[in-house]
Amino acid sequence: MATALKGMMTRPSGSHRDQLVFAAIALTNRLADGWSFGARYTAPEDPAECASIANETCERFYRKQTAFLPEQADELKVMANRLHDVLLDLALDDIPTAIPKVNTMLAEHPSALHLSEKPPYSLHYQDHSVPAVQGWQVACCAALASWVSSNSTQYIRCCAALRCDRLFVDDTRSGTKRFCSIQCHGRENVRAYRLRQAVAAAEKAHRMPRL
Ligand SMILES: [Zn+2]
Q1: Domain residue limits, the chain
Q2: Does domain 13-207 have CATH number 1.10.3300.10?
Q3: Which of 10, 22, 24, 108 has its C-alpha lying 20 to 30 A from 152's C-alpha?
Q4: What is the ipTM of this complex?
Q5: Is the CB of residue 160 less than 8 Å from the CB of residue 91?
Q6: 66 CA → ligand 1 middle, Å
C-alpha cells in the first residue's frame, strides 16, 4: 500500500458507521456460504436458527433495529451472501468491482441517512420503520460506501488460511493480521510445518546414494 494512501486512511473508531461495517462482517461470517476453518460452509437451513443467529450477531453492534424474523430467513441469507461478495471484493482491494454492487443494493432501498435532531448531532444510517433485512442492508451498504470513500476498506481482510473465506477487520498497528481466528492460524502453522517436513524428506531422499 502506498505510504501516501496510508496517511489518508480513516482508522476504524467505533463510530455507528464502523459498528455497521463490523456487523456486516460478523453477519456474513455466520450466514454467508463459502469456506470456513478448512471446510465448506453453508448457513443453517432452519429459518428460526438463521433469525436467531442474525439477531444475536447484530445486537452486539446496534440494538434499535427491529428483530429478524424466521420468515425473513431466505432474504436474510441472500443479503448475507451479497454483502459477503462485496466484502471479498473490498478485501482484495478490487474497488471498481465492488462499487456497482454497493450502488445496486443502495438503489434497491431508499437511503435512511439522517441526522439526530438533538445534540450530540450524529449521522444515523438505520431506518427503524422497515423490516430488519431492509434496515440492515441499507445501513450496512451506506456504511460500506462511506468506508470506500474514506479508504477505510484497506482494513478489511479475508482469512489467508487455505479453504477459509471468512472476513475480519485488521486494525492492528502493524496491519499484519492474516487469519480470521486462532483455529485458522493454527491450521496454517501445521500445514507449513508439514510442508517443510515433506520438502526436507524429499531433499534427503534425493541426496541418498542409489544402490
Ligand atoms: Zn479463517
Answers
A1: 13-207
A2: yes
A3: 108
A4: 0.99
A5: no
A6: 31
Q: How far is the CA of 100 from the centre of ligand 1 (A)?
A: 27
Report the separation in Å between the CA atom of 158 and the middle of ligand 1, taken as the mean of its atom positions: 8
The CA 192 to ligand 1 mean position distance, Å, reads 15
**Distance from residue 104's CA to the centre of ligand 1 (Å):** 29
CA of 181 to the centre of ligand 1 (A): 6
> CA-CA distance, 170 to 22, in Å (whole number)?
11
> pLDDT truncated to tens, each residue of the chain (211 aa)?
444 444 456 677 778 899 999 999 999 999 999 999 999 999 999 999 999 999 999 999 888 778 999 999 999 999 999 999 999 999 999 999 999 999 999 888 777 788 888 887 878 887 778 889 988 998 999 999 999 999 999 999 999 999 999 999 998 889 899 999 999 999 999 998 999 998 888 888 877 665 5
Instruction: Of 166, 150, 170, 148, give the one whose Cα is nearest residue 158.
Output: 166
**Distance in Å from the first CA to the final CA of the chain:** 54
- Nearest by Cα to 76 from 28, 27, 133, 136: 133
